[in-house]
Amino acid sequence: MLDTDFFRRWMTVTAAAVDREAAYLTDLDSAIGDADHGSNLQRGFAAVTAALEKEPPQTPGAVLMLAGRQLISTVGGASGPLYGTLLRRTGKELGDASAVTRDELARALAAGVAAVAKLGGAAAGDKTMLDALLPAAEALGTSFEAALDAARAGALATVPLQARKGRASYLGERSIGHQDPGATSAALLIAALAAAGSADGGAA
To answer: What are phi and psi of 73, to 5 degrees?
Structure first.
């Protein structure tokens, strides 16, 4: 079972990964966006970590709801509302349970991803974070490692795509040949989830 500590660890490992990869995310974003994706997420997840330490939530759902609120309030551009919606909706789906199974998390994450798709009006193949999140949520029912592999493959698969949503879509064909920064940061989020799962002994 995945308890509250597991979800706190997921968020803190994500924050560390974003901090480590912020320059890389910003480099990707400089090619097809506003060159602020890494710094924005870095600020947002630092706020998440601080909030979790100040008022530790008591359930898995509450951890994700708090994280989502922090991202919405501290991250500029589209990333804050999108990641905030992802985590808040996932947390809402988990409800008040003190611990959940990986399958329950997979279903909740799928609902969160669907909420992101609705908010952004995007779909698979549009060269967005969904290209990593959609396959990851589906694969999570198999294992954490399968979700990570799917997310990384999804992010890499954005390179030859032409962006159809977001700021990158303004570039038209010039967006082809660049890895999408949102899909890349989404893969970091799933990598942190897999790392938390590994530390938890691959809890089912």
So the answer is: -85, -20
Map tokens 């400089």 to a residue: 30
Residue 204 lies in a domain: no
C-alpha 141/C-alpha 118 separation (Å) is: 22
Tell me, yes or no, whether 138 lies in a domain: yes
Rounded to two decimals, what is the model's pTM?
0.95
Q: Which of 120, 136, 140 is nearest to 128 (CA)?
A: 120
> Reduced to 3 states, what is the DSSP secondary structure of residue 133?
helix
At residue 82, φ and ψ (nearest 5 deg) are: -70, -50
Q: Which domain holds residue 108?
A: 2-198
- As a whole-number percent, the residues of the chain with pLDDT over 70 amount to 98
Number of domains in the chain: 1
DSSP 164-184: -SSGGGGGGGGGTTS--HHHH
pLDDT at 202: 53
Say which CATH number the domain at 156 has: 1.25.40.340
Question: Phi then psi for 56, rounded to 5 degrees?
Answer: -60, 120
Mean pLDDT on 112-135: 97
